[in-house]
Specification:
Elements lengths: L2 H18 L1 H10 L4 H22 L8 H19 L1 H6 L3 H12 L15 H16 L1 H8 L7 H8 L13 H25 L4 H12 L17 H15 L2 H10 L3 H5 L1 H24 L4 H12 L14 H13 L12 H19 L8 E2 L3 E2 L2 H27 L4 H12 L18 H15 L3 H4 L10
Antiparallel strand pairs: 1-2
Helix pairs in contact: 1-3, 1-4, 2-3, 2-7, 4-6, 4-9, 6-7, 6-21, 7-11, 8-10, 10-11, 10-12, 10-13, 12-16, 15-16, 15-17, 16-17, 18-19, 19-20, 20-21
Length: 476
């Protein structure tokens, strides 16, 4: 393991994150909300050791290997969550709560321990939103896109950190150009989202803040009532559109952007499966609302899109709906968004493979000598080793979920709350059911540590984190 090069890379990435902290610092200075010194102090605390480490390791320029890439990604997210907690600490939050809030932000989970958001300094609110936006596409992907000095090992790092299942997809021949393309689309979507929020009645601060957390599928809001605070169908419609866009593969957005054509959206089998699942869940809950009298059509549509895309915004207290309805939304979040998106969950393409693979096995029981090919859509053939790896991922996911669930039950939490809390954090959703429907402030410190681990486990899609826990990883 090239520790010299790894620490040098860490120093640059953390320094880059420290520079991003100047955005809320400048806002605090302009608006005089009393938090400027705290952000300036946070910047100094983070940037100073980064510069010192960079100065002592700049001579190391060895290429990073596959093993190094897993190590860099995992520990960088842990370091980022740790240093990202400093502004919350300076605000007066407890260390565990600060780390939990920071981890929730940077992994775009959206679970919060803070109540009374409307009374928080606006610069701190902006910082929470910025955390999610940076974590959505990935700070390392951004660094590869705009910092040539991080080209060392960039390919391996990109493959392990890029959101979803795009690690083998190159939109352009070079990794750096691919990273730039991803971030360009990400920025364009964010700007458009902010503009449409503003045109539909949001103030400029709320429009920018919510655009950051909408396009990142983070779900943090500047108000305790989330999107419901604005009580506007126009704002909810804008939110629905951009949540859907961010839940689709960015490879599709890239093709539409470069070819000036939207045809790819209509012929992509994963997108069709994802939209179909959303529509199915919406119709089932809508029909059931006619019998049990809960929620309006708009609130059901909004909550379905928000929860299934793993964004986590609310315009209604969906946890107060009949349990089967709120639980159905939570199950939809387990499936999650499309591959190559910034959404969480297991991902739609994996479920498509598992469903089709199961159907083929059933056919083989009826026709033992038949030859069947696993396909996604009419043309895309899926090899057996890909199907095996998907089932392997799902097995590890279920085992991880059960272990985390037992640990949460050990803290004394009731089953519904524990199940939804693990599901919400592992799928990077945010709001759960029961005691964690509005806030995670009532969760014990040990429970918050478990849930923080679940967040990063879900953000790195399990294998990237678990692989470094295998003893053979540390042997040459």
């Amino acid at each position: 393991m090239n520790l010299g090069s790894i620490f040098n890379l860490f120093s640059k990435l953390v320094a880059f994150f420290a520079i991003s902290m100047l955005v809320p610092a400048i806002y605090a200075f302009i608006t005089k909300d009393g938090f400027f010194i705290s952000f300036l102090l946070s910047f100094c605390i983070i940037i100073t050791p980064s510069i010192l480490i960079w100065a002592t390791t700049k001579k190391y320029k060895e290429d990073l290997q596959a093993k190094d890439g897993f190590f860099v990604i995992t520990f960088f997210w842990l370091i980022l969550a740790s240093v990202g907690s400093i502004p919350f600490l300076l605000y007066g939050m407890a260390p565990i709560d600060s780390f939990f809030e920071s981890m929730s932000g940077i992994t775009t989970t959206g679970a919060t321990v803070i109540t009374g958001l409307d009374e928080l300094p606006r610069s701190l609110l902006l910082y929470r939103q910025l955390l999610q936006w940076l974590g959505g596409m990935g700070l390392i992907v951004l660094a590869i896109a705009i910092m040539p000095m991080l080209g060392i090992g960039g390919g391996q790092i990109f493959k392990t950190d890029v959101p979803g299942a795009m690690n083998d997809q190159k939109l352009t021949p070079r990794i750096k150009e691919t990273a730039q393309s991803l971030w360009l689309i990400y920025v364009i979507l964010t700007i458009l989202c902010a503009i449409f929020y503003f045109l539909n009645g949001m103030g400029s601060f709320d429009a920018i803040s919510h655009a950051l957390s909408t396009v990142s599928i983070g779900g943090f809001s500047t108000h305790d009532e989330s999107i419901g605070y604005f009580n506007s169908f126009g704002i909810e419609l804008v939110c629905i559109v951009f949540m859907l866009l961010s839940a689709l593969s960015f490879a599709l957005h890239y093709n539409a952007y470069t070819n000036f054509s939207i045809k790819k959206y209509f012929y992509d089998p994963e997108s069709g499966f994802f939209i179909g699942m959303l529509f199915f869940i919406f119709i089932i809950i809508l029909i059931s609302s006619m019998f049990y009298d809960f929620g309006s059509v708009t609130s059901i549509l909004f909550q379905t899109v928000s929860i299934v895309t793993t964004t986590g915004f609310t315009n209604d207290d969906y946890s107060s709906w009949p349990l089967f309805a709120s639980f159905l939304l939570l199950i939809g979040a387990f499936v999650g968004a499309c591959s190559g998106s910034v959404g969480g969950g297991i991902k739609s393409w994996r479920f498509m493979i598992m469903i089709n693979h199961s159907i083929i096995n059933l056919k083989k029981m009826i026709h033992p000598h038949g030859v069947f090919t696993l396909k996604l859509g009419p043309n895309k053939v899926v090899e057996n080793d890909v199907a095996a790896s998907v089932w392997g991922f799902f097995s590890i996911y279920v085992i991880s979920f059960m272990i985390l669930l037992v640990l949460m039950l050990f803290t004394g939490m009731d089953f519904l709350t524990a199940f939804s809390a693990i599901g919400a954090c592992l799928n990077n959703l945010g709001p759960g059911l029961g005691m964690v429907a509005d806030s995670y402030s009532s969760v014990s410190d040990f429970g918050k540590v478990i849930l923080s681990f679940a967040m990063i486990l879900g953000r790195l899609e399990i294998f990237t984190l678990l692989v470094i826990l295998i003893p053979s990883f540390w042997s040459d």
